[in-house]
Amino acid sequence: MHRAVFLALLMCSMGLAGCLDGPTVNSDGYGNTSEGELQLPSWSVGDQWLYTFITPQFGEDSARLVVAETDEDEGLYRLGISSEREAQRHAVINHNPFLGRVTHDGLSVFEEGEAQPVFNFPWNKGDAWSFTLLGQSWSASTVAIYNGVVDVVARSDDGHSLIYAFSGRAGFIDSLVWTDAEGVEQLRMELTQTKTGYEGDVHFYRARDLLDSVYESTDNDIYDSFLDSGHPDGSAWDVLVWYIDVNIANGGSGTLAMNDHQSASPLTRAWGSGATERGAIGTIPSNAGDYGLTVNLRGGDSLLHFRVAGAITTTWTL
Description:
By secondary structure, this protein is mainly beta. It has helices at 2-15, 84-93; strands spanning 48-55, 59-71, 76-81, 100-103, 109-111, 114-116, 128-133, 136-146, 149-156, 161-167, 172-179, 185-195, 201-216, 222-228, 239-247, 253-259, 267-271, 276-285, 289-298, 303-317. The chain folds into 2 domains: 2-199, no CATH class; 205-317, Jelly Rolls, CATH 2.60.120.380. The chain is built from 2 helices and 20 strands. The longest helix is centred in the N-terminal third of the chain and has 14 residues, at 2-15. It is globular and about 65 Å long.
């Protein structure tokens, strides 16, 4: 019933002025929600949430977000993930914005070094606020609260939508869907389990984009370059994380060669007629300095999307 009411409220929020002022689910509009479920939760090391993630690049996968560390002096939690491959995907695609630093005082996450208030404690239906996330500037509002779950709808200046639910009982996100201006879902998160006392390794890749380019078919070699200068705070990258999405036309071919300033070739690829490589990802050692790329694509519809991010890696053993 809660989901049906949320969808009705969502339609009103997007198209009919004043709908949110109309009748609510019951007399208080909050269902079976306690006062504590509206307040800022407190996390402990080892708290964990198992999510299913769905993205266009990688399809469906599951991994646990885990509180790996809490720093009372800085007022920060550090949130890692049980899958190192998921940590690498976040580094180069940034499809999971809730990894890394999270503030004690509002569970704010960081984008471009600034804490962003994705959540708005204590929750009240009808509240509105703004934040930046996933490269978008969002205007958000709380549209429903029912049975301990808060539903939020946000729209960006570029026409993206972000619909998410926060569970006061689980102490974190219950679900999230990010849809771009073309109506394509870029990220879906669904909570499947909440537990405490995690034991094992937890990973985080603190990253920054170095290259994000799309190359199309041409009769000649394509040359490109990027600079590996380390993190802006002066730290050297531990690794470079690369991402490849390629489609070679029938009768076409393709090659990619990346060379560092010492003339080493840490990454090479070759594709034949009709080849595809979707969402391939990996790491190479960071060697500070200039990197050069040589790309050759044959066939009228051949296309290559290539990304590189520098990353500082952290692993906790709990």
